[in-house]
Amino acid sequence: MPVWLREHSWRQTLTAVYLSLPLRGARATPANIFCSEQYLKVSIPPFLFEAVLYAPIDDTNSTAKIGNGNIFFTLYKKEPAMWDSLTLANADKEKLQYLRENAVLKAQEKAKQETEAKKVTKQEHKKYALEATMKLEEAERKRIEDLKERERQKVAEELELWKNQQKDGDKYKSIQKKEELHQEVEPLKERKNENINKTRIPNEATSKTRLKSTRGHGSCSIFSQNLKEEQLPAPRVAATIKVNFTPRVFPTALRESRVAEEEEWLHKQAEARRIINSDLSELEDLKEEEKNPDWLKDKGNKMFAMGDYLGAVNAYNLAVRLNNKLPLLYLNRAACHLKLRNLHKAIEDSSKALELLTPPVPDNEKARVKAHVRRGTAFCQLELYTEGLQDYEAALKIDPRDKNIEKDAEKIRHLIQGTVQSS
Amino acid sequence: MSAALGAERPQVVSHVQQALSYTVFDCKWVPRSARLLCLGSAARGAGVVQLYELHGARLELLREIEKPKPIKCGTFGATSLQQRYLATGDFDGNLNIWNLEAPEMPVYSVKGHKEIINSIDGVGGLGIGEGAPEIVTGSRDGTVRVWDPRQRDIPVANMEPVQGESKRDCWTVAFGNAYNQEERVVCAGYDNGDIKLFDLKTMSLRWETNIKNGVCSVEFDRKDINMNKLVATSLEGKFHVFDMRTQHPTKGFASVSEKAQKSTIWQVRHLPQNRDIFMTSGGSGSLHLWKYEYPAQRSKKDSEGSEMGVAGSVSLLQNVTLSTQPISSLDWSPDKKGLCVCGAFDQTVRVLIVTKLNKI
């Protein structure tokens, strides 16, 4: 139950009502005061003061002053009249309730309107600011445009001037030449009858002939230009220069190259060289050179060439144990296994070699062709002709110019067709 | 355009813009006049030559000539100032020299190459330099041929790949070092980045190098002096400036390179009135104006005592973007400093004026 504050005092004039409300120690803030046209409430829990006013007031202009343990209201009446009392006397509960609710609603509406009004003014301010900045920018732009225009016009005028000069210059030159022509004719005629300087003879001769021709044509040509033509060297003796173009490791221009893949391949090769996956305990008793996979590979190759296939396989095995990323080791071992008729092993090794020979670049073409051919051969010897044919065709795709592969592929095709027919 | 800062920097002002109804491959000023030529290819596969005159703020079409094959490049470099014959290379490999007053029949015609002539240059004409007038053409068939208009059908020099070697397209050619009647040098750039310098006096390969990316354009700063500088532009926005005064026996010529923009640099052209200023045009429709500064000492001795060149430095004076399509051709007017024309693949030709070049 709120505690009602009833010790208020008030006085009035024709236009205003002054209400003073002591606060009995409670502290008030503007939030505690609620006022609408005909209803006034001060609620500072647990204290409560409410008044349904005698007549409507102008709540927007009315003020409340908080201070000294007291709220001092200055309420301006809507209609100037003397009130009999501050509050409506004959207010029953319902009416009071209704009035209260009304008041609340009205207050809310007012609040809404106020916020909207505020929004609208804010919008207008923004628009105005925008327009102002736009104007400023326009002015700036215009200034720059004008500068440009002025430059342009200046230059255009110069251009026109220059053009006219050219035209005048041409006309002047042509007039001058005509004069010169006439002038030259006179002294030449004179000189014909006088002693002529040796050096002048060629000039005179040529200019005489020129004179004749120019007179005939009626066009003015410059003497000096004609003389110059006389002095031009003969056309050059025809010759050919042979040209070589810069070779590249990968012979494509930068814009065509598949640089990324090629880099990858080179990188892989470099990596493979560096790997030494060695099992130190076993290898301690090996000689120094036997720890080098390249040396072992060479040894294996030699043994293969001599026919010692088992020895070659051993060499390759050791090399693989030292470095299992070199595709050539697997490739060569596959060849050995083929010779030894270890066909499954041959297939395995060729497959491993092919795996290591990715990405497919022109550099490892030969190796890939060999791998495919060896695997194909192994398949055929196992009578898995279709797989074999697949490998041969892959080899052909990489290197379509190898006749042997083509022949072998043909043979296999016939074999397949033969078996299909017979079965 | 950075108009606000650097009021003293040269500005590139677009004076006239003309929309064309065909693809323009080359545009050239007619020497000693305010006229310019546009060469290109119409949509139906015919070659077009248009002659315009600059009148105030617009271009007036004076003449339009149609030819059976699209025309790729042209030059006035090898004709006299009186005749002003135009030499053109077309898509079929034909080299023709035309008298623009009577363009029905060419003055000189030869089927110079098997494939399109990518680039053409002329020397010995226009009162510049000495020696016989000659035209060099570079073609997609990998050969570079030098022609003399007085000798029919047979080139006076032929630079072709060795038998059996795969050929690379030649994209650009330029004459240089034509300071007297005997000396002459041809520089050719290929699509694999090769740059080769052929000496026509000794008929030999004088120098070659490779700049990794295809060479779009080469130009000497002046054709008619002892070779001074060579600029080579390439794909991927790089260009190299070689100092050609000192050739080291193994290292060749010293160079400085600059990466200007992400796109291809299609053309480089030196200002005729100042050989240290040049403009590059790019695939993004932009133009960059550069200035080369010489080093304190142009050559120095290396550890073995042989002379080697020292390259200077390049600084950007101005850059401007005019179009969204590559600007494929560029030409400075030899008569008015700062006036230039450029043609772009958006079928427009623009006349530009570069201001304040006197103050550099």
TrEMBL record, chain A:
Subcellular location field: Cell projection, Neuron projection; Dynein axonemal particle; Nucleus
Keyword annotations: Cell projection, Coiled coil, Cytoplasm, Neurogenesis, Nucleus, Repeat, TPR repeat
Domain CS intervals: 3-87
Classification via CDD domains: p23_DYX1C1_like
Superkingdom assignment: Eukaryota
GO cellular component assignments: dynein axonemal particle; extracellular region; neuron projection; nucleus
Segments annotated as TPR repeats: 369-402
Keyword Oxidoreductase in annotation: no
Gene from which the chain derives: Dnaaf4
One Gene Ontology term of the molecular function aspect: nuclear estrogen receptor binding
Name recorded for this polypeptide: Dynein axonemal assembly factor 4
GO biological process, one term: epithelial cilium movement involved in extracellular fluid movement
Stored Pfam families: CS (PF04969)
Coiled-coil intervals: 88-165
Primary site of residence: other
Automatic annotation (TrEMBL), chain B:
Keywords: Apoptosis, Cytoplasm, Repeat, WD repeat
Protein name: Dynein axonemal assembly factor 10
Organism of provenance: Leptocoma aspasia
Function statement: Key assembly factor specifically required for the stability of axonemal dynein heavy chains in cytoplasm.
WD repeat ranges per the UniProt record: 135-148
PROSITE patterns: WD_REPEATS_2
Presence of the UniProt keyword Hydrolase in the record: no
Listed GO biological process terms: apoptotic process
Pfam families reported for this sequence: WD40
